[in-house]
Structure formats: C-alpha cells, structure tokens
Amino acid sequence: MGFCCCVPNCRGNYQKTSKVSVFSFPKDETLKRKWIQAIRRKNFNPTKSSKVCEKHFDDRDIIKVVRAYNEHGENLEAKLNRVKLKEGAIPRFFPNCPKHWSTKYSSRESVEERRERQENYQLNQAIQKSLQSKKKYDDEFKFKSFIELSNLVDSVRVEVPSEWSVVKKPDSVLFLIVEAVPVPNIVLSAMYDNFICGE
What we know:
It is built from three helices and seven strands. It is of the alpha+beta class. Strand 3 (62-69) and strand 4 form a beta hairpin. It is rod-shaped and about 90 Å long.
C-alpha cells in the first residue's frame, strides 16, 4: 500500500479500491503554509511521509504527460509514469468536508504557465522557420539530372564551402578536400557523372 492522504475525511489509498496519486508537501515554506491552511488540520506539522492526494487538486494543476516537438514541428506527447504538480499548485477540493473549504480554480494564467506557453510558441516558430528554410533550400538547389547539377555548379547562387575544391568536366563534377601539408593529399572526394545521376 502506498502513502495515504493526510487530508481530513479523505480515504485516498486507505483501501485497495481507492488507489490515487499523492504529492509531498512543497519545500518552499510559503507554499507549504498555503497547503497547511488549505487542508485545515489543527496543530498539523507535515513530515516527509505526509501526502495530499490528487482528489484535492484541479486537473489543470496535475501534469500527466510531457510534450515536445519533433524535427517536423509535430507536437508529441508521452504519458508520465508518475504524475506531478505544476509549480505553485494548491489543494482546492475537499469532497467530504464543509463546502466552504473548497475554492474555485483561478482562470488567471500563472507566471509558470505563461512562460511555458511562450517557450512552446517560440520553439514551434523556430521549428517552422527552420523547416521552411530547408524546404526553400531544397527546392532551389535540388537536381534530377547531371545537366541540372552542372548548371547549379556554374550558378552564382551556389556557394561551395572554402575547404572544397571543384573540378568540373563536360561529363562529370568532382568535389575534393585537399590537404597541402606536409604534402598534397586528397582527404575526401565525391564525383557525380551522367551514370550516377541516372542519365
């Protein structure tokens, strides 16, 4: 059996049929005092084993999945093995206690939520910009034949990196990286011709 909920009149994890996730009291003293005030236990001093179960938190305060963007800008989600609370979350609901114990969830966006939203927006924008830049580059410099490649090499639009040397012949294009010290030496080479390009 896991930790039981310390909130008055709550049976969270006291029975096998009521298994719930529980959360430790915050280390931040100010937030901890808010938790203690919320659960209204007289002369209560929480210990490491004191827990509050998920029944007393708004669903919007409980993080059950993690989200990330892949290289295609798609939003991916993965379920957490152990749920956690958002920063600043406070127990709000007390089903078996007087109604005035419970408080409404504030729809006002917290600093943490605003920062997370802005970071996700900026990340998504950066990914979209990167994808658009890549697509533009691919569309501009892709080739399907040796003739198209040969024309691209002649084009002023193409800037070959300075460490590469280009040897262009009527039926082939050779890219080389040459070391001059201590003696000239071809480190890397790539050749494209009519046969490789499918002509």
